[in-house]
Amino acid sequence: MINNNPIGLFDSGIGGTSIWREIHQLLPNENTIYLADSKNAPYGEKSKEEIIHLSYKNTEFLLDQNCKIIVVACNTATTNAVKELRAKYKVPFIGIEPAIKPAALHSKTQKIGILATKGTLNSELFSKNTEQFKNIQIIEQIGFGLVELIENGKINSSEMNELLKKYLDPMIQCNIDYLVLGCSHYPYLIPQIKKLLPQNITIIDSGEAVAKQTKKILEETVGLREDSNKSESLFYSNTKIKVLQEILENKYPILFKDF
Predict the structure, then answer these.
(1) Is the pTM of this model over 0.90?
(2) Which residues are catalytic?
């Protein structure tokens, strides 16, 4: 099956570009449209009802652009709204959830850490996914302030380093051997996180798994693109375009859209 329509992605800001990079690397022939709802970031501090409403709005924008599949490149939106999205729209949805399972299955200390937003850690889906690992101690930490700093272009700031140290030190003291990043913004913090963690602690994020799942679902449902013309990647943002440009290294067109 051939389908030359674009893959749509949305996130509460620029963080989901970490997911977009993995998808673009695995599926370079696919056109993509990315929606950065930075004006409403972070989703992690909002109510479930607000997150569902914003997810509906983002989805409808991408459907208006004829997207053939939608990647919810946001842990908080996935854990709070993907069930409702799948029930409301016919297009396939790919969600992103914290990679608890591989960390739990491979942990030797039986202790893993997860750094995520309040909205993700408090969600019903997250609770359901962690119940099956009763023999694993999961040290949860809400990343208060991290998304806001990333959205304001302060990834390498002293404030960021201080927050990360505050959040990671208790996990290190608990003898974790895996750290799960439960927010699509957080992969951009991996260089700083590595400096703060002992070498025996493995960092896991969900980007590669999401890309593989996107390819699988495309092949099974709506189809891949087959076009001799070079693929196009288009980005929309409703604020902070400069920060998005910096994350993308000014390689792609970014359009302002007040949605």
Answers:
(1) yes
(2) 74, 183
